[in-house]
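Troubleshooting: if your tokenizer reports a length mismatch, compare your output against this known-good record of 157 residues.
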Amino acid sequence: MHKVRIRGWKEGDLGQIVDLWLELAHFVRPMDGFYQLSPDAGTRYDAYLRRVFDDHKYAVFVAESDNGLVGFAMGRVNESPSVVVPKTVGYIENIFVRPEIRNSGIGTALCNELLAWFRRWGLGHVELFYQVENQEAAAFWSKMGFKTWLAKAFRTV
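Known-good structure output:
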């Protein structure tokens, strides 16, 4: 295993981040009975990343080895309706590490970078979603101190 360093994203990373996101999407897809990937999902995700690249309310950290990016984490500052407190919370959109190097501390390091970024914003709460069938994610988030408090349900009509 090559040495991996965690750093903030650069515009030149976008293509590799899209590739990692597609790898994540294909990993969780068999567990998802509701959402389908659009045929141009990679192109749309690339456009999304470009749109938020300079937005200070978004952060992306990457795990970089000698062979390129092996993981990434993306979070944002989320504004809730003014009827709830806290009004502003951190939201983790994605953390992904390539399967062949999981359980090596990279996911933890990426998560810790996001948590530190949220603390610099002065946020006291962070939330995220993961698929309940994804036991690997459930174990990771539990290890990172996250507690499940809400279930999201769906049905067809």
